[in-house]
Amino acid sequence: MRINYLVAGGFVVLIFCVIIYVVTVLPAATFHPVPTAAAHRYTPKELAGRNIYRREGCFYCHSQFVRYQDRGAGEMVQAGDYMFETPNVLGTERTGPDLSNVGGKYPDEWHRAHHRDPRRVKPGSIMPSFSYLSDNDLDNLIAYLQTLGAGRKLPSWVSPPQEIRDEYERIKSHVNVDSSAAANAGRGIFMQNCSVCHGVHAEGNGPISLTMETKPANFTRPFYKNYSDAMWFWRVKEGLPGTRMPRWGLTLGNEQMLYLVAYLKTLPQDSMPAGKEIHSLNQIDNPHVLDQNFKTITGLMKESGNRYGTSRNEGVHE
Amino acid sequence: MQRVLSAIFSREPYSASRNLFISAIFWLVVGTSFGLLASTQFDMPDALSGVAQLSFGRLRPVHVNTVLIGWLSMGYIACMMYIIPVLSGRKGMWSERLGNITMVLWNLVMATGILTILNGDTEGREYAELAGTIHIGHTSIQVLDWAVLIGLLTVGINAWMTVLTGTEKKWYVSIWYFLGALFWFPIVYIIGNRGFVQLPGLDDAITNWFYGHNILGMWFTVGGIGIMYYLIPRFTGNPLYSHTLSMIGFWTIGMFYAPTGTHHLLQSPLPEWLKSVAVISSVFLLVPVLTVLTNFFMTMKGKWSAAADHIALRFAIFGGVGYLLTCIQGPFQATRSVNWYIHFTNWVVGHAHLALFGTFSFFVFAASYYIIPRVTGRKMYSKPLAVWHFWLVALGIIIMVLDLVIAGLVQAAGWHAGIPVDQWVVELVPYWWIRSFSGVMIVFGSALYMFNVYKTVFHPEQCEALPHSPTGVVYV
Lengths: 318, 476
Prior knowledge:
The complex is a heterodimer.
Chain A: H1 2-30, H2 44-55, H3 108-116, H4 118-121, H5 135-145, H6 162-171, H7 180-193, H8 195-198, H9 229-238, H10 254-265, H11 287-317
Chain B: H1 2-8, H2 15-43, H3 56-87, H4 96-118, E1 133-136, E2 139-142, H5 143-165, H6 173-193, H7 201-236, H8 243-257, H9 272-284, H10 286-299, H11 311-334, H12 336-342, H13 346-376, H14 383-417, H15 421-424, H16 429-458
Antiparallel strand pairs in B: 1-2
Helix pairs in contact in B: 2-3, 2-4, 2-13, 2-16, 3-4, 3-5, 3-7, 3-13, 4-5, 5-6, 6-7, 6-8, 7-8, 7-13, 8-10, 9-11, 10-11, 11-13, 11-14, 13-14, 14-16
């Protein structure tokens, strides 16, 4: 009887050891991701800053862990990003924003002011004031913060999240968003659903816009000419949080949203500088021509920028 | 002084249990007060600004470690040091003095731990912040971790020797649970707090959460269930419903709890197999949970009305229901589709409070109302105070958990709509005020409890004598 117990007990202890081996030792032994560009070997100063980050418990409210589904937090993290992060500061609860990509987003002076008195820089923030940190500590901490995500090469501060980019890749073959047929179909959808706020010319002056505190976007502004197709799709599908732009993904089907994307891409740009190709702007129904025009126009803008630059310089010389 | 020292290092039977209960309850009030202080920083972020020791990032680990190591672990060991000798037919532990030395050691650890964390010496791993780092040359030693570990090992030795030298050769199920907990927890503690192996980022996170979840699974759950398997038959006078179920529960806890830690990192770029193992074993936790609860509630059969008069039983039932809710919520939120939404929010904070306060602390409350009178030979000083204690902490934790769950859903909606933090944070302000309010209830209830225990232990002349009952059922 006693022997049976001993054997059974030994067997169970063995199984327990195997489980512990599988979930702790095995990953440590087999999981060696290749360091990515975002993995950063810290200098002594940055390391000191990282220790302050850990000591002050920043990671209790700020994660460094952009997930597939996160919106507006920048590029998603990869396994290799964390090769030099010991102990980890992934975080488990976010009361503040994710900091994976915060490096370079704000100037050092902003960080300094924000840590001394957060509410003066961001009203409504509940971050504790770190005014008790010495200047040297704060410098180190900021040096560390400015490294976060530094190697990730963000295309822009607001870009569609990975989830939307993948979804767009999956469905984009349904509709050719560069075709005038799709743009025509999209124009109908726009007139029915969007024009009431954005206006029939998409200039953000539809009748309801009168009642809105945050005015609807004027899609003829040059800013929107930088939108990628996936970015248009994201904004149409999920709306713009914090405004009254709805999530059209709840109402429209994927193909309808793609038609809209096709139409939105063809909208003309206001305040175009007069150029020799001005007559071609009338041919907006053909997006390919518009694209060529766009290239010409951006070329012209660069040229004019140079011209202004030289004139200013000349002024200085005078 | 002589009297105090002899009380602290006493050899008297059950003195270790008594001393540990007193210490644990003291750390309960300290730990919950730190939690309350931390929560007020959400409501009034500038109230305490400018003091390094009182910034949120330092108060939070102090709160967590004080309630985990100071209150709950010491409370558990206090219960074990009464229940193990009783069940193995001994009067007192194998060495009461060793038990008391453990008590002194852990109190020193807690006092040092609070001071060191407040002054910025932290390991920086969630749930494992205790460090007490000492630098000798190029190596740094985390003294407090080793002290906790030594304390655990002394308890383990003491418990084993008590069981082996006892007259009762057949082990009641509680002893299985206690010895299991005292075997598993040191292993988990070493892996979680290892200062000797530095792993790169994500591997560090894996072991961090192996520890963070298994301090709950292999220590608080196993120990707490052991306590309840002893208490419920004692409270009700019914025999345990099924020994087979209790053994199934014991072995399945051992099997299914250990790999669950990675469910805290489900959306991170970890190997998928590890996450799948964690999710599957989290869902399988329903097996031990339901066997244990079936056993509890079937043992209660016919005696539910006793809770009207029996305060300790009332705590036990509340803890049991809390356990049911926690352990249904747990596997639910560990699945990928739910975790996808509620991870990173206050929902999880609410879950942690429901488990550690709403369940395991209530088990210790119930045990202390049963054990302290038996150790001192006196009834509790005041029954109305115990009733107040029950309602304050029970309503406090209910309000806190509901509030945090709702706040977590608001927060999750904010994350998933991509609303900037400074826009939805203002929406959470009312919830944070409610949480602080529930925190006041819990701290106040705990203070009443401490006062009640203080009077019972230190002024026994003011308490009624404990009546002898042939059935062993005494309503405190």
